[in-house]
TrEMBL record:
<dbReference type="InterPro" id="IPR043938">
    <property type="entry name" value="Ligase_CoA_dom"/>
</dbReference>
<dbReference type="InterPro" id="IPR013815">
    <property type="entry name" value="ATP_grasp_subdomain_1"/>
</dbReference>
<dbReference type="GO" id="GO:0005524">
    <property type="term" value="F:ATP binding"/>
</dbReference>
<dbReference type="Pfam" id="PF13549">
    <property type="entry name" value="ATP-grasp_5"/>
</dbReference>
<feature type="domain" description="ATP-grasp">
    <location>
        <begin position="486"/>
        <end position="522"/>
    </location>
</feature>
<keyword id="KW-0067">ATP-binding</keyword>
<keyword id="KW-0436">Ligase</keyword>
<dbReference type="Pfam" id="PF13607">
    <property type="entry name" value="Succ_CoA_lig"/>
</dbReference>
<dbReference type="GO" id="GO:0043758">
    <property type="term" value="F:acetate-CoA ligase (ADP-forming) activity"/>
</dbReference>
<dbReference type="GO" id="GO:0046872">
    <property type="term" value="F:metal ion binding"/>
</dbReference>
<dbReference type="InterPro" id="IPR051538">
    <property type="entry name" value="Acyl-CoA_Synth/Transferase"/>
</dbReference>
<dbReference type="Pfam" id="PF19045">
    <property type="entry name" value="Ligase_CoA_2"/>
</dbReference>
<dbReference type="Pfam" id="PF13380">
    <property type="entry name" value="CoA_binding_2"/>
</dbReference>
<keyword id="KW-0547">Nucleotide-binding</keyword>
<dbReference type="InterPro" id="IPR016102">
    <property type="entry name" value="Succinyl-CoA_synth-like"/>
</dbReference>
<protein>
    <recommendedName>
        <fullName>acetate--CoA ligase (ADP-forming)</fullName>
        <ecNumber>6.2.1.13</ecNumber>
    </recommendedName>
</protein>
<dbReference type="InterPro" id="IPR011761">
    <property type="entry name" value="ATP-grasp"/>
</dbReference>
């Protein structure tokens, strides 16, 4: 799809410079050093640069370049792009800065560039980027300090500095790349385009990215879900906090979405999120050199008991299991290991173990069908032959179909061994916890590859009824709906509690008498979000006297707390007992759309903040995972002899809410709190609803 971007037969450098230290000169130097195609410098003030004939404009060149790299002041870029289009250039990389990251005028200039590219059918990387590298074609169309080593990792980044730092780190570790892409402001080509390109690239086995935001969230999820079945995708997403998000906006002009939405979107689409650049680099080393395990049963081989225990603890917290060895494995280990050695997992070969004992232990454990991967630990004690141990480990790892990760812990005394591991592409981590984290990533990807995506089922709903309610509210300039909008839930088959909306005390008494006691009374007001906080809820009303007393005290309390609130009456509900309160909510995220939330309801959600998120639309598989992933899930399954709640009814309700908010994009926020979940087999009932509307 983007072959001519990464494998052009000719490259023009618009803004090529004779001056050492200028970006236009650095790009030209990099191309001359590694690229075998035609190089066309463009500079109206020079006849030749570095022995290459120079042209005033790209229109003056004898033939059209397949790729043009633009290194000019921002104001000159639109004219250069126009000339590229007229010259028949297919792709452009705009390195120049001064666009949307610099403010309103820069944003206008960037939109103009994007329009020109679109009009001429070109594709553009950037602006405000470092450039691109393709080691397969030898293309280094960037101002990076050096060419990347050849390898199987494709990396893209919205930060040019992270690109250069990563390249330098990789050079010191012998880690190679297939492609390196500085995304910049993503005015045209974005992470979505490059994910598709890398998915079909034979030279790429692992995809990594540093992102400050995604350009099209739903499309990203669709593409990533497909690509992650072929190749692992590892992403560092910055801007997790409010402070970080502001920094993002000032850096590349990216509007950052909520971190919960990114976590949910990544999890649903098979993207593995790294918490730091260091962790991303750890992961790509593991994925670029090690096979993906079949399961999560891990063996630990160590010459130091303390390191083994730390690693075992880390495995537990990372969701990995320590393998239980076959008896035959224990017998074989007993044959050659010291009588003082620990033969069970973790296997402690002891501090004086020579390299051949390490090799024997590894070979024996690799043969065990209960072992999916091995973490090898080495502490440099006085009698430890680090060099020979590294050679033996490398020999076994290269021949193994199971992943082997190492943590040779130390400094100068392990350097020689670490060099041997690096030369054989065996990842070594400074501390065991990093090795465990990388092994967990390998194991988790094994699960992702096997995952089957189930489309959400369509629900038979009365969309016309909901549309009528929403249109009426908007025509009356009402953007917040509460208890009076229960009919929206009924239209989607969501059970609601017996309800009556009334305006006066007498109407309230009549409704209670007809409904039957006990009842709940709630204030009706679009201005009040949290009724309990202002005394707007009364429960357990058993008779007429209770109703009268509750009505008067509630009105008094509400007016004292919120004197300006418009009160339209009260709602009488049949009191439901014997259930658990949960909350189902939705907030429309800027990048991914409807972000669904689930947790324990009532006041618990504010205190515990124990909630799960998913991006709509969702089916029953994701819905069930949302329910089971909260820490307080055991409360719903029944504790200390309590009966289990009707979890299937929660799952169904989540799916119905998912379709509702997909069907009506004008719903910006939505909340059922509480949804009363009854014992298993008895269903659930919505007790309260609140939603916020945007424009149609």
């Amino acid at each position: 799809m983007l072959e001519k971007l990464f494998e052009p037969t000719s490259v023009a450098v618009i803004g090529a410079s004779r001056t050492k230290g200028k970006v236009g000169r650095a790009v030209l130097d990099n191309l001359i050093e590694s690229y075998n195609g035609e190089i066309i410098p463009i500079n109206p003030k020079a006849d030749e640069i570095l022995g290459l004939r120079c042209y005033p404009t790209i229109l003056d060149a004898p033939y059209a370049a397949e790729l043009a790299v633009v290194v000019l002041p921002a104001a000159m870029v639109p004219d250069a792009l126009e000339k590229c289009g007229l010259a028949g250039v297919s792709n452009v990389v705009v390195i120049s800065a001064g666009f949307k990251e610099s403010g309103i005028e820069g944003a206008k200039l960037e939109r103009r560039c994007a329009d020109i590219v679109r009009e001429h059918g070109m594709r553009m990387v950037g602006p405000n980027c470092l450039g691109i590298i393709d080691t397969g074609s030898g293309l280094n169309a960037s101002f990076a300090a050096s060419m990347a080593k050849k390898g199987n990792i494709a990396m893209m980044s919205q930060s040019g500095a992270i690109c250069t730092s990563t390249l330098d780190w990789a050079d010191s570790r012998g880690v190679g790349f297939s492609k390196f892409i500085s995304l910049g402001n993503k005015a045209d080509l974005s992470e979505n385009d490059f994910l598709l390109e890398m998915a079909d690239d034979d030279n790429t086995s692992v995809i990594a990215a540093y992102l400050e935001g995604v350009k099209d969230g739903p499309k990203f999820m669709e593409i990533a879900r497909e690509v992650s079945h072929k190749k692992p995708i590892i992403v560092v997403k910055s801007g997790r906090t409010a402070v970080g998000s502001r920094a993002v906006s000032s850096h590349t002009g990216t509007l950052a979405g909520s971190d919960e939405a990114y976590n949910a979107a990544f999890a649903q689409s098979g993207v593995m999120r790294a918490d730091s650049v260091e962790q991303m680099l750890d992961y790509i080393r593991a994925f670029s050199s090690q096979p993906v395990p079949d399961g999560k049963n891990i063996a630990i081989v160590t010459n130091a008991g303390g390191l083994g225990i730390l690693t075992a603890d880390a495995c537990h917290y990372a969701g990995l299991s320590l393998s239980s060895f076959d008896e035959s494995t224990i017998d074989r280990l007993r044959e050659k290991l010291s009588p003082a050695a620990n033969l069970y997992n973790p296997v402690d070969v002891l501090g004086d173990a020579p390299s051949d004992i390490y090799g024997y232990a590894l070979e024996t454990i690799l043969d065990d069908p209960n072992v999916d991967g091995i973490i090898v630990l080495t502490s440099p004690q006085a009698m430890t032959d680090v060099k020979n141990i590294a050679e033996v480990v490398a020999e076994k790892a290269v021949a193994s179909k199971k992943p082997i990760l190492c943590s040779f812990v130390g400094g100068t005394r392990i350097e020689e061994g670490e060099d041997i591991l690096d030369q054989n592409h065996i990842p070594n981590f400074a501390f065991p916890e990093r090795a465990v984290s990388s092994m967990a990533a390998l194991c988790n990807y094994g699960v992702i590859k096997k995952r089957v995506h189930l489309e959400s089922e369509k629900i038979d709903a009365d969309k016309e009824a909901v549309s009528s309610i929403l249109k009426k509210a908007l025509s009356e300039n009402r953007h917040t709906l509460g208890l009076e909008s229960f009919d929206i839930l009924k239209a989607y088959g969501i059970p609601i509690v017996g309800t009556s909306n009334v305006k006066t005390l007498q109407e309230a008494i009549d409704a209670c008498e007809e409904m039957g006691y006990p009842v709940v009374m709630k204030v009706l007001s679009a201005d009040i979000s949290h009724k309990t906080d202002v005394g707007g809820v009364r429960i357990g009303l058993e008779n007429r006297d209770d109703v009268e007393r509750a009505y008067h005290t509630m009105m008094s309390d509400v007016r004292r707390y919120m004197p300006n609130a418009v009160i339209s009456g009260v709602q009488i509900q049949k009191m439901v007992t014997g259930g658990k309160e949960v909350i189902i909510g939705m907030n429309r995220d800027v990048q991914f759309g409807p972000l669904l939330m689930f947790g324990l309801g009532g006041t618990y959600v504010e205190v515990l903040k124990d909630v799960s998120f998913s991006v709509a639309p969702i089916g029953k598989d994701i819905s069930r995972k949302m329910v089971s992933s909260i820490k307080t899930y055991p409360i719903l399954t029944g504790v200390r002899g309590e009966s289990s709640s009707d979890i299937n009814s929660i799952v169904d309700t989540l799916c119905k809410v998912s379709q509702l908010v997909m069907d009506f994009p004008e719903i910006l926020e939505f909340e059922i709190n509480p949804l009363m979940v009854l014992p298993e087999g008895q269903g659930c009932v919505a007790m309260d609803i609140r939603l916020t509307l945007g424009s149609e």
